[in-house]
Amino acid sequence: MIISSARTTVFDIDGTLCFDGRTIDGRILAALAACERAGHRLVFASARPVRDLLPVLDGAFATATLIGGNGSLVSVGGQVRARAAFDADDLGKLLVEAERFEAGYLADGPWDYAYTGPADHPILGRVDQGRLARRVDLADLPAVVKFLVVDATDMAALAEAGRVLGMTVNHHLDESIIDFAPGATNKWEALASLGIERYDAFGNDINDLDLLRHARHGVRVGAHPGLDGVAAVTVAPEPGAVAAEIARLAAATPAE
User: Fold this and answer.
1) pTM (2 decimals)?
2) Residue 218 and residue 200: Cα distance in Å, rounded?
């Protein structure tokens, strides 16, 4: 499905709009609403699967396009589809590496998920908050669109093994997790597949690199060094600063 990209603004979620893993501050929600009223088409693009975006948005912005799993899932008009998934051979090779490094993981299908990590891992606080899905065995997922390693004996070596296999790998050192996606899947590539080429963007982490690099106006939230020189503006990672920048964008006349 091709979507008009006129006045499109794309927002990452965690660390950009959401700072507690569960909610978006009211000031940010108000600024997003102002942006929508000003005629901006809102897109939310996250490492989370679509299932885990919905509780954070809590019913707001029902017409927004959602990109989940760092580009492997899209939801347009409420219809969720997988646009990238691991093929059986690649997934088998990744599982061999995961076993070699005694990895615990969260594997997402188009809707349900499998989990083998520690029962007290913080990631579980962000998984299926709305109780919308089922936790199943990996073999019961119809497809795997994202594979998140939450612990392993050598995280750096496992991340490199994924790169050697040709996967998109985001090693989040601050959270001690590795995010594997099939092939060259990322948020920007998913936007392009929807026909969105001109957009503004807000992001905070290395998985937002291409999203910000290709934006006509990019806003970095926080100071991730991997995004140095990529965004036009950097704002503090706190709700007031983010809300003010969104409101500024809503009030500005976009350059065409």
Assistant:
1) 0.84
2) 6
